[in-house]
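Lab notebook, bench 4. The sequencing result for the construct came back, and we need a structural model before the next group meeting so we can plan mutations. Quick request posted to the team channel:

Model the 3D structure of this chain.
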Amino acid sequence: MKTTFTLALATLSALSALTLAAGPAVAAGKSCDKLKTEIAAKLDAKQVTGYALEIVDADKAGDAKVVGSCEGGAKKIIYTRK
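Done. Here's the predicted structure in token form:
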């Protein structure tokens, strides 16, 4: 029983490490325009209307609702109601 638990724990640890390692690489590789288009598609699919998405420098986001991050965190995508 102890061997099964140890194996399961090792597998879980390996999967977690792979996920953490791959996450930033995937996020850094996606262009801001592509991410903005994907977010807009999700909002449109939920029939959200009267909104705007804007790509801004991370330090310019202020109190706006941030719905995405790109360019390694250097840019943010903010959501505003029209």
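Confidence is low (pLDDT under 50) at residues 2-23.
Will bring this to the meeting.
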